[in-house]
UniProtKB/TrEMBL annotation:
Ligase found in the keyword field: no
Protein name: DNA-binding transcriptional regulator, GntR family
Domain called GntR C-terminal: residue spans: 29-153
Species of provenance: Enhydrobacter aerosaccus
Coiled-coil stretches noted in the UniProt entry, renumbered to this chain: none
Keyword field: DNA-binding, Transcription, Transcription regulation
Domain of life: Bacteria
GO MF entry, a single one: DNA binding
UniProt keyword annotation of ATP-binding present: no
Length: 185
């Protein structure tokens, strides 16, 4: 019932609980809420970062890159989530982390489905490395900006794939501008 209250499951009278199907619009709305929260958690973590956390982040990034190169998308998603939540947990604000977890929970099945069906090559982005560097140098604004950039890149890829799949079903080419919201991804 807690998952139903949080929106991670829906329960209709006479039916079993099920994972709700998110639309692209709902995904975008959740993304708009996630961005400032994850930025804040990253900025708070920057002043509390330890060498152990930095070492852990380097290892998680290596796992992420390795999994992507092996096209083991589930492992890559898991390493990416562990990377992000290692940072957010370091914020020392369990209320903030719980809110972020709830938002990830809402989008989890949607992202999982889209990510696993993406016909793509491994990412060549070094954003995780840049985030680690900003954390190491204790630069909260820079680390926050980089987290947002990393999130937006993931959102952009997923939304482009989703819109392309919808357009293919209708026999149309997707409009490149349809993946933007207020000029941002």
């Amino acid at each position: 019932m807690q998952l139903v209250r949080e929106g991670a499951l829906e329960l209709k009278p006479g039916y079993q609980p099920r994972v709700p199907v998110l639309s692209a619009d709902q995904y975008i709305k959740i993304r708009e809420v996630r961005v400032p929260l994850e930025r804040l958690a990253t900025e708070l973590a920057t002043v509390r970062v330890t060498n152990e956390l930095l070492d852990q982040l380097v290892e998680l990034d290596k796992q992420f890159i390795d999994a992507e190169h092996r096209r083991s998308w589930k492992e890559a998603m898991s390493a990416n989530q562990a990377f992000h939540f290692s940072i957010y947990n370091a914020s020392g604000n369990e209320v903030l982390v719980r809110m972020i977890e709830n938002l990830w929970l809402l989008t989890g099945p949607f992202v999982h489905k889209q990510y696993l069906s993406l016909p793509r090559l491994p990412s060549d982005s070094d954003l995780h490395t840049q985030i680690i560097d900003a954390l190491r140098r204790r630069m909260p604004n820079e680390a926050g900006d980089l987290i947002v950039q990393d999130m937006r890149e993931g959102f952009r890829i997923i939304l482009q794939h989703l819109l392309h799949a919808k357009a293919s079903l209708r026999g149309k080419r997707p409009n490149a501008n349809t993946t933007k919201t207020n000029g941002k991804y």
